[in-house]
Amino acid sequence: MLEANRRTERLIDGLLVLARGDHGLDMVEAVRFDRVAADVVSAFPGVTLRSRPTTVTGDPVLLTQLVTNLVENGVRHNVPDGSVDVRVTPDDGLVVSNTGPEIPPDRVPELFEPFRRMTPDRTRSANGSGLGLSIVASIAGAHAMTVTAQPNPGGGLTVHCHLPPKTSRPERPTPCAEGSSST
């Protein structure tokens, strides 16, 4: 019963973050995205980070959630002794890549839909609520970022959060995809 309550709590928390990202940003500030990534990655042994100073305008709590969801997914959906690499630069934005199982390219868009996974059972797993990448897409949209994903040769996934043009100010979420992901 305690485990069921924990899953329900995680689901509710995920839905609240998703709703907050879909609502847009009420207040924004300059956020050192590279520092956010460094803080998140420091909690995950074995995850590598390459970064350069990168500042974005947005909500630091939501940006932390975005990076956390991507890194957690990279670690959770990996192969034994696999790797998770994180890169943050002004030119690349945020890129998270892992060496997980093979993902058919035509199934990648499903990963960004709430409660969808590559495995049939998405809602009863103790390993998450099935909202991780849909939350990423929502937060990215609220920050005028574009999210794309592509399977890696040999297995795994690379998710790329492209930074908005310097002249863009995040206000409301916008659909963003590159053929393989939707937000």
How many β-strand runs?
Answer: 7
Structural class by SSE content:
alpha+beta
Q: Could you give a short account of the major beta sheet?
A: 5 strands, mixed
Total of domains: 1
String of helices and strands: HEHEEHEEHEE
Pfam families: HATPase_c (PF02518)
GO molecular function: protein histidine kinase activity
Catalytic activity: ATP + protein L-histidine = ADP + protein N-phospho-L-histidine
Protein name: histidine kinase
Question: How would you concisely characterize the structure shown here?
Answer:
This protein is 32% helix and 20% strand.
Explain this structure to me?
This is histidine kinase. The chain has 183 residues and is α+β, with helices and mostly antiparallel strands. It has one domain: Histidine kinase-like ATPase, C-terminal domain (Heat Shock Protein 90). It contains four helices and seven strands. A five-stranded mixed β-sheet has the order 2-4-5-7-6, covered by helices on one side. Helix 1 runs parallel beside helix 4 and helix 2 crosses helix 3. It is globular. The termini are far apart.
Features:
single chain; 183 residues; alpha+beta; Heat Shock Protein 90; 5-stranded mixed β-sheet; two-stranded antiparallel ribbon; 4 helices; 7 strands; globular; disordered C terminus
